Amino acid sequence: MKRTDYIDWDEYFMGVALLSAKRSKDPSTQVGACIVNIDNVIVGTGYNGFPKGCSDETFPWERSGNFLETKYPYVCHAELNAILNSASRTLKGCRIYVGLFPCNECAKAIIQAGITEIIFISDKYADTDGVKASKRMLTEAGVSFRPLSTRRKTITVDYGIV
Question: Could you count the other beta carbons within 10 Å of the beta carbon of residue 105?
């Protein structure tokens, strides 16, 4: 008899996104993303961090202050990294799993890449102009979005079990 407590596709792909977020060196916010094609094959992953060649030792991680002395003009968001890291020629019809609802800049990249669905966990910035703009563009472009629906609170990865 087969197991019945296995994780579903949404839980699996969101788990990959959350595990990817663990690579982020951002001290305040770690976000990961996982792009999946219609065959449930992962075609891209990413996390928030500085572009290649830009040292996380020399660029700022601050959230406030002079704009050029904060992380905001330099950090590449998880969604954009997942798109840029894609192993696929096309992302048309794909879905993206992400811990945090995409900002307006990432929404533009998601739309342009042809991704058609966003599954997210947190929408904590829903009242900001950036997320309001994001939702407006996504809706206009026909990109659907929904919060993750799961029966689990946690999934444990144990390196000691084989």
Answer: 14
